[in-house]
Amino acid sequence: ARAMSVTHLSPTLRAPVVSQLTRPDGKRATRRVLCRAADTQATTTTAPETMEMRESREILDSFFVGKSLAETLLERAGSVFTDALSEVSRFDADNREQIRAFQDEVLSKAREESQRGKRKDDGMR
Q: Which of 5, 26, 46, 97 ranks highest by number of CB atoms within 10 Å?
């Protein structure tokens, strides 16, 4: 880890230029950020926007639009998938219920027929 210090402002971007700090004894200095309100070199002014800055901002804006688009599509796809899965589950449950009701009806009729058959057999004896 190197200690860094702001030495001056870049003339084109008016951004701080960082350089390495070393102590007089040759050891690395600890990292510190020193700010002085009255320091005229540390003040920044708004520089005119350059073509590179505009292009960078446009690229960054495009990235965030793309990211937001992907997140929104994923959320909607997840919602659609959840709804479809819910419908399939509901259909399956309804289908099972109808099958069970049909089986109960068939078994009930079979019992009734069996009881009628036993009565006829008992009556014939």
A: 5
The structure tokens listed for 110 are 């079979």
Asked if residue 1 lies in contact with residue 32, where contact means CB atoms within 8 angstroms, the answer is no
* Gap between the Cα atoms of 3 and 21, Å rounded: 5
Tell me the C-alpha distance between 7 and 12, whole Å: 15
Helix locations, the chain, DSSP H = 51-124
Q: Please give the Cα distance from 30 to 71 (Å, whole number).
A: 42
When pLDDT is averaged across residues 34-60 and rounded to a whole number, the result is 66
Model pLDDT for residues 65-82, shown as the tens digit of each residue: 999 999 999 999 999 999
Q: What is the CA radius of gyration of the chain?
A: 40
Is pLDDT at 109 greater than 80 in this prediction?
A: yes
Whole-model pTM? 0.41
Amino acid at 1: A
Q: Are 5 and 17 in contact (CB under 8 A)?
A: no
Is residue 26 left, alpha or beta, with left meaning phi > 0 and alpha meaning psi from -120 to 50? left
Nearest to 14 by CA among 54, 51, 41: 41
